[in-house]
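User: I've been trying to design a sequence by hand for this structure and keep getting stuck. Would you show me what you'd pick, starting by listing the structure so we're on the same page?

Assistant: Good idea, let's start from the same input. This is the structure you sent:
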């Protein structure tokens, strides 16, 4: 017998925890702070994120996931244990039974990477672990009836990966996962400012630029933002002004890679399903779908209407939780196997 059903969106930049019957109970950055001397866990989530780049020598604040997969197994296990215990303690049957956990993974994940996620969750206290691919979880979270013989295209734009999938009859017909996503946009901004101004900025500053004035199509109204970084010439702090047109230059190439991948998936999709997608539209989920102009750019270049899902950042987490309602999907896979 299992306790609570818990859905986990184990993302590169954030972890969302959904408990069946209660919804999203946690939305925290996937950052962990550890004291190297004592190996003691100091902070997880938002508190740990505040420590990034600001810790003394004995404290390290790390992101244990990179490009959608585990890069530091031990730290990921401790982070999962923290969130699973947090979910179980808040329930009515706290501690009586181990929870059944459904975790979403990128569609391009390897068997070795899958096993790392399953083992980490099991060691963290899960009773049974199922994996579900991010686009499928997103579709369920949005409310699409995935069991129908009708094609739906879901594009999940996360921090570490962009997952594009065509779904029909309860499974993924055609998909592609690329390691070009939100973090890639941030890197592009850092490289652009370094190349043009000889100034180095941090990841958090790049993300703030992306959110506030970033765009993949030129904005109707020019926006500007002051940015403070370190001059690579003098080594001293320097403030410059960056415009939204410059952000378009910095982000355009990365956006093109994502759009081209969507086109490739459409080209390999059976024509009947392409017809369904043309009628229903392409659905965008994930934090990257909120980047200004990305939906219109995809729509312009594919000729298919694009819909940004309501609550785009939470769709995948909600879908992992809702997947436990469809026992037929879960029963088709042994514990610890992927749902697709």
């Amino acid at each position: 017998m299992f306790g609570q059903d818990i859905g986990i969106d184990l993302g590169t930049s954030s972890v969302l925890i959904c408990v069946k019957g209660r919804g999203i109970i946690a939305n925290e950055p996937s950052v962990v702070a550890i004291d190297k001397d004592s190996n003691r866990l100091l902070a997880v989530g938002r508190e740990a994120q505040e420590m990034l780049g600001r810790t003394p020598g004995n404290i390290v604040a790390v992101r244990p996931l990179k490009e959608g997969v585990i890069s530091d197994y031990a730290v990921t296990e401790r982070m999962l244990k923290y969130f699973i215990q947090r979910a179980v303690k808040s329930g009515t049957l706290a501690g009586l039974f181990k929870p059944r956990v459904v975790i979403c993974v990128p569609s391009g994940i390897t068997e070795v990477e899958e096993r790392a996620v399953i083992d980490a969750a099991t060691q963290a206290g899960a009773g049974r672990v199922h994996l579900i691919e991010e686009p499928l979880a997103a579709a369920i979270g949005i409310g699409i009836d995935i069991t129908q013989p009708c094609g739906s295209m879901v594009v999940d734009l996360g921090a570490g990966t962009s997952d594009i999938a065509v779904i029909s009859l309860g499974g993924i017909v055609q998909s592609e996962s690329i390691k070009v996503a939100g973090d890639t946009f941030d890197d592009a901004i850092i490289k652009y400012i370094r190349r043009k101004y000889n100034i180095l900025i941090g990841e958090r500053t790049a993300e703030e630029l992306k959110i506030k004035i970033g765009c993949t199509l030129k904005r109707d109204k020019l926006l500007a933002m002051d940015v403070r970084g370190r001059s690579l010439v003098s080594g001293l702090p320097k403030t410059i002004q960056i415009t939204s047109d410059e952000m378009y230059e910095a982000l355009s190439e990365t956006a093109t890679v994502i759009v081209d991948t969507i086109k490739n998936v459409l080209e390999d999709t059976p024509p009947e399903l392409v017809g369904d997608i043309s009628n229903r539209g392409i659905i965008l989920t994930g934090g990257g779908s909120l980047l200004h102009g990305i939906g219109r750019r995809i729509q312009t270049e594919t000729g298919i209407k694009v819909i940004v899902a309501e609550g785009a950042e939470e769709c995948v987490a909600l879908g992992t939780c809702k997947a436990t309602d469809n026992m037929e999907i879960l029963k088709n896979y042994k514990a610890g196997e992927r749902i697709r």
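That's my pick for every position. To get oriented when you compare it with your attempt: The two ends are 25 Å apart (CA to CA). The chain has eleven helices and 19 strands.
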